């Protein structure tokens, strides 16, 4: 596992200008990428934005407050932070993932069972 914990790189996508006839909902075209090594000697083949982009999509689809152009936003920062915490608690401790066949917390050895909503609510008290 040598480099997995100490090697770190950032991949920044470079987008071209949006054409005048494009609508504001059209994504810009990615014209290249710039990789910067932050620490260690990471393998360039494994530097990717896929994981963070998948996590962002999961959050947007799972919580209306992250969906673009919606009125389901939090008016208080505390409410927003609480919703994000509930989302990640459920995602990691209560939701069985198809690829893992268990929760991520169980796969990491942090839990020995699938948490119920009642357990999560009692934890918050």
Helicity level: 25-40%
Q: How much strand content do the residues show? A: 5-15%
Helix and strand element order: EEHHHH
The residue ranges in which pLDDT falls below 50 over 5 or more consecutive positions are: none
What's the end-to-end separation, in Å?
A: 38 Å
The overall strand count is 2
Number of DSSP helical runs: 4
Using only C-alpha atoms, the radius of gyration works out to 19 Å
Structural features, described:
The chain has 125 residues and is α+β, with helices and mostly antiparallel strands. It has four helices and two strands. It has helices at 50-62, 77-94, 104-107, 117-124; strands spanning 8-15, 30-39. A two-stranded antiparallel ribbon has the order 1-2. The longest helix has 18 residues, at 77-94. The radius of gyration is 19 Å and the shape is extended. The two termini are 38 Å apart. The mean pLDDT is 85.
Question: Secondary-structure blueprint of this entry?
Answer:
Elements lengths: L7 E8 L14 E10 L10 H13 L14 H18 L9 H4 L9 H8 L1
Antiparallel strand pairs: 1-2
Main traits of this protein?
125 residues, alpha+beta, 2 strands, 34% helix, extended
Briefly summarize what is shown.
The chain is built from four helices and two strands; from the N terminus they run E-E-H-H-H-H. It is an alpha+beta fold. Strands 1-2 form a two-stranded antiparallel sheet.
């Amino acid at each position: 596992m040598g480099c997995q914990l100490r090697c770190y790189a950032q991949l920044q996508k470079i987008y071209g200008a949006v054409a005048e006839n494009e609508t504001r909902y059209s994504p810009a075209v990615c014209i290249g990428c710039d990789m910067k090594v932050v620490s260690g000697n990471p393998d360039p083949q494994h530097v990717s934005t896929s994981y963070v982009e998948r996590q962002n999509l999961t959050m947007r689809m799972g919580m209306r407050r992250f969906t673009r152009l919606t009125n389901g936003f939090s008016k208080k920062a505390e409410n927003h932070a609480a919703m994000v915490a509930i989302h990640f608690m459920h995602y990691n401790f209560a939701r069985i993932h198809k690829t893992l066949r268990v929760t991520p917390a169980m796969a990491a050895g942090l839990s020995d069972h699938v948490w119920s909503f009642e357990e999560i609510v009692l934890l918050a008290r």
